[in-house]
Design a protein that fits this description.
Blueprint: H1 3-17, H2 19-24, E1 26-32, E2 35-41, H3 55-70, E3 77-86, E4 95-106, E5 109-117, E6 123-133
């Protein structure tokens, strides 16, 4: 099995049970080993009192992309901690894109950076997540 096929099958298994991302309106666009791209269009229920995208929605988008990137090796990985910096607001009707890249994977620990951009390409947020693999896989691989 190629690493690309492993990433795709891991993502399919995760997506099947990911009610939270679907509920928020997040879409999985692309996955590869250590990489994921997801989108979310800012809807009315995503707006805060300033009529811009709530930071929790942006965080959820980045966190989902992080999860798909660090779980792309068919090893279950969970978040240890993560941080986000908001750079510009998401606007109503705008499609936000989160692009996650695993930058380090040492033993059971990983670091993944996520850049969230707006429809015009500007940076909306920068997210860094630390992951830890635990026991289990997303699907059974044949030997």
């Amino acid at each position: 099995m190629t690493p690309e096929e492993r990433a795709r099958r891991s993502a399919e298994a995760m997506w099947a049970g990911d009610a939270a991302s679907k509920w928020v309106g997040i879409n999985l666009v692309e996955v590869a080993p250590g990489y994921a791209r997801m989108t979310c269009t800012v809807r009315g229920e995503h707006l805060n009192g300033h009529r811009i995208c709530h930071g929790g929605v942006i965080f959820s988008l980045a966190d989902s992309a992080f999860a798909f990137a660090c779980n792309s090796h068919n090893q279950i990985a969970v978040a240890q901690h993560n941080t986000i910096s908001y750079l510009s607001p998401g606007q109503p009707g705008e499609t936000l894109t989160a692009e996650a890249r695993e930058i380090s994977r040492q033993g059971r620990n990983g670091i993944t950076d996520v850049v969230v951009t707006g429809g015009d390409g500007r940076q909306v947020a920068l997210f860094r997540g630390a992951s830890r693999t635990i026991s289990g896989t997303h699907f059974k691989e044949e030997a």
